[in-house]
Design brief:
Layout (H helix, E strand, L loop, with lengths): L3 H27 L2 H4 L7 E10 L4 H4 L6 E11 H4 L12 E18 L3 E21 L2 E19 L5 E24 L2 E14 L2 E5 L15 E6 L3 E11 L1
Antiparallel strand pairs: 1-2, 1-10, 2-3, 3-4, 4-5, 5-6, 6-7, 7-10, 8-9
């Protein structure tokens, strides 16, 4: 019975500690956007997809009437989390900032003067920033901007198989909006589909066609033929498979 006076103050002391720790735990949870909104928290992303770019410039339309179609690969990192932006002062816990890098390919075939076959090949390397807002556990909206470099190659072939070609490098800029639909949203892994639409502004690349063979009997003149500046700008649309972890 002598232990009762000691046990009662001890119980009150432990209870006060538990009550004091509860608000602190809730504050720590509020700093985590995933926990606060019951959304999954992912730091990294890999995407793989395909898309098309509608060529609208006179220089590109002179070579082909087709769209520039190809594949893309991208990686991304949650930039806001690395910079420590997601704390109690962050006004929108569902809004995240990502640093992105990507690689895209594209090709289009056409006809010149109704007798010559044309081919355009393009490679692009980009880096940029994206802002994404999670409106639902399985749905996110995003906008992105990127800058990069492009390599364009043009080849013209006649009926005998003789060809002339040239390639060059230039810069490009891209802006787009995206809709993410997640198929699974596990705490440490998410898998979904991204629908993306935007516009690419590409620098015109000066190209002068030439042949490695001096005996080519092409319908083109034997001397180098200047195509001027090839402009591969145009609106884009793409679909990608996205994995976040």
């Amino acid at each position: 019975m002598r232990t009762l006076p000691i046990a009662r103050p001890a119980a009150v002391w432990f209870a006060s500690l538990a009550l004091a720790a509860a608000p602190a735990a809730r504050a720590d949870t509020d700093r985590d956007p995933g926990a606060a909104a019951d959304f999954p928290v992912h730091r990294d992303e890999i995407s793989l997809g395909g898309g098309a770019r509608a060529l609208r410039s006179p220089s590109a339309n002179a070579l082909t009437a087709a769209n520039l179609a190809g594949a893309s690969v991208g990686i991304a990192r949650d930039l806001g989390r690395d910079l420590g932006l997601y704390d109690a002062a962050w006004p929108l816990h569902q809004l995240t900032l990502w640093a992105e890098a990507g690689f895209v390919t594209g090709a289009a075939d056409g006809t010149l003067f109704q007798t010559l076959s044309t081919t355009i090949d393009q490679l692009g390397f980009t880096a940029g920033v994206a802002a994404r807002y999670r409106v639902h556990r399985r749905v996110a909206l995003g906008v992105r901007g990127a800058l990069g470099a492009q390599r364009a190659r043009v080849a013209i072939t006649d009926g005998s198989g003789s060809s002339a070609y040239d390639h060059g490098w230039g810069t490009l800029a891209q802006a787009s909006a995206a809709l993410d639909l997640f198929l699974t949203t596990r705490p440490h892994f998410g898998l979904g589909v991204r629908l993306d639409a935007g516009y690419v502004a590409a620098q015109g690349i000066a190209l002068t066609l030439h042949s490695d063979r001096s005996d080519d009997a092409m319908l083109l003149a034997m001397r180098p033929l200047s195509l001027g500046h090839l402009d591969l700008s145009g609106p884009t649309a793409a679909i990608s498979l996205v994995a976040q972890f």
